[in-house]
Amino acid sequence: MAALTDAARDWLTGRTRAVLVTIRADGSPQSSNVLAAFDGTSFRVSVTADRAKTRNLARDPRAVVHVVGDDFWSYASVSCRATLGAVTTTPGDEAGRALLDTYRAITGERHADPDEFFAAMVDERRLVLTLTPTSVVGSGW
Question: pTM of the full predicted structure?
Fold first, then answer.
C-alpha cells in the first residue's frame, strides 16, 4: 500500500460513486454502495445512525473506500480511518448543515428546499461520516 499521491488525489476528486467496506464484529467484510465527496484530504458520506456500516465503524474505524473509474480496470482502493459526526436532531443544526454541505459537494447543486432537507435528515437519523485516507492501491491514474 502506498501513501495517497497527488496523482491519486487528482483522480479521486470529482468521483462520487464508491463501495464502502467495513468490518463486522465477526471480522468479515461488509460492503455498501455509497455516494462520497472527496476534497483532496478526506471523503464525506451521509449515513444513517442505525445502519450496519455505521455500527461497524463505531466499533472499528478501519474502512476501505473502493472507487471505480470510467472503465472497469481503473480504480482506487483507499484504506481509511473513519470519524462519525453527530446525528442531526434539530432541523438546521450543525450536523444538518454538515449534511447539506456534503449533499452539495456530491451533487454539485444546491438543494431546492433546505428546510425539507433538514427535516428529512432528522427523520432518517443521519450524520456525516468522514473517512481519512491512510494508503491507496489501484490503477488508471
Answer: 0.94
> How confident is the prediction along the chain (141 residues), in pLDDT tens digits per residue?
567 889 999 999 999 999 999 999 999 999 999 999 999 999 999 999 999 999 999 999 999 999 999 988 999 999 999 999 999 999 999 999 999 999 999 998 888 899 999 999 999 999 999 999 999 999 877
**Closest to 129 measured CA to CA, from 65, 82, 81:** 82
Torsion of CA 85, 91, 92, 96, to 10 degrees: 20
Q: Any idea what the CATH number is for the domain that residue 81 is in? A: 2.30.110.10
Give the range of the structural domain holding residue 18, as residue numbers without chain letter: 6-139
Distance CA(135)–CA(65), nearest Å, equals 11
Asked, for residue 101, whether it belongs to a domain, the answer is: yes
Residue 1, domain member (yes or no): no
Q: Which residues pair with 21 in a beta bridge?
A: 31, 64
8 grid coordinates: 491519486
Torsions phi, psi of 14, nearest 5? 95, -15
Q: Is residue 26 part of a domain?
A: yes
